[in-house]
Design brief:
The complex is a heterodimer. By secondary structure, chain A is mainly α. Chain A folds into two domains: 69 residues, Arc Repressor Mutant, subunit A, CATH 1.10.10.10; 34 residues, no CATH class. Chain A contains six helices and two strands. A two-stranded antiparallel ribbon of chain A has the order 1-2. In chain A, β1 and β2 form a beta hairpin. In chain A, α1 packs antiparallel against α4. Helices cover 28% and strands 37% of the residues of chain B. The longest helix of chain B is centred in the last third of the chain and has 23 residues. Chain B is globular. Chain B starts with a strand and ends in a 13-residue tail after the last helix. The chains are: A mainly alpha, B alpha+beta.
Chain lengths: 103, 151
């Protein structure tokens, strides 16, 4: 989770995520065309975003495509929003307990 | 031009437990909005996802089943005509072990540019995957405030 917050703390990296949110699956070249930065700088930021699992990559032939991966952000949201869903959680937890007893 | 979404989550669990969570309807109901899936989970098996009241939400077939490593589902929405009209999508689960965790990659594609189906499921996948992670790591589908998600 620290890696996610660190990655999101930088405005350039948030901008790269915005670019992917606008159009998912871009290559490094496509992303470089939209920000005023060197290819090396963009690569460095993408590596940090990948390490935080905020960007997932997929190879298509020799092209590396970058996808915004919102799952870690959702994990963080659930951590604090989940409190308001406790009644539902409780019901699900009871269901799980009753199902597991049958095994 | 196709539409594609890619999601990755890391879950501290074993290959078999993750496979079971993905393919057992009693587990699915707990982390997937109460919706079970019906299938024999073998290559060529039919596949259905049901609402909790039994109506069919999505349907298709298992294109590839390689437990506990890879599952490919031919997937069509059945309850919204504009999504059904886009035809079949392809959903791939890749399960890879990394240390004491599993890396689960979900790739959902359809050969339709700017597909409404992919847009529709893109809101659901992160919730489903967070809930699956929580279910496997803590035994509770969505974390309460006292249960910190790891990672």
């Amino acid at each position: 989770m620290d890696a996610v917050f660190k990655a999101l703390a930088d405005p350039t990296r948030r901008r790269l995520l915005d670019r992917l949110h606008a159009r998912n699956g871009q290559t490094l070249g496509e992303l470089c065309g939209q920000v005023d930065m060197t290819r090396q700088a963009v690569t460095k930021h993408l590596t940090i975003l990948e390490a935080a699992n905020l960007v997932a990559v997929s190879w298509e032939g020799r092209e590396k495509h970058h996808y915004l991966n919102p799952v870690p952000i959702n994990d963080i949201a659930e951590r604090w929003i989940g409190k308001y869903e406790r009644p539902r959680l409780k019901a699900l937890s009871n269901l799980k307990k009753s199902l597991e007893r049958e095994e | 031009m196709s539409s594609k979404y890619l999601y990755v989550t890391y879950i501290r669990t074993s290959p078999q437990k993750l496979w079971d969570a993905l393919t057992n309807p009693e587990f699915q109901k707990q982390y997937w909005f109460g919706m079970p899936q019906e299938s024999e989970w073998k290559t060529g098996s039919s596949w259905k996802m049901l609402f909790s009241d039994g109506r069919v939400a999505d349907a298709g077939e298992i294109l590839e089943s390689d437990p506990p490593r890879r599952l490919v589902i031919k997937w069509r929405n059945e309850f919204r005509p504009e999504l059904k009209a886009e035809g079949y999508s392809r959903c791939v689960y890749d399960l890879e072990q990394e240390g004491d965790s599993m890396r689960l990659t979900v790739t959902h594609t359809i050969d339709v540019p700017n597909a409404k189906l992919i847009e529709a499921v893109s809101g659901g996948w992160p919730k489903v995957l967070s809930s699956l992670k929580s279910f496997l790591e803590t035994g509770t589908p969505l974390p309460g405030i006292h249960q910190a998600p790891k990672g």
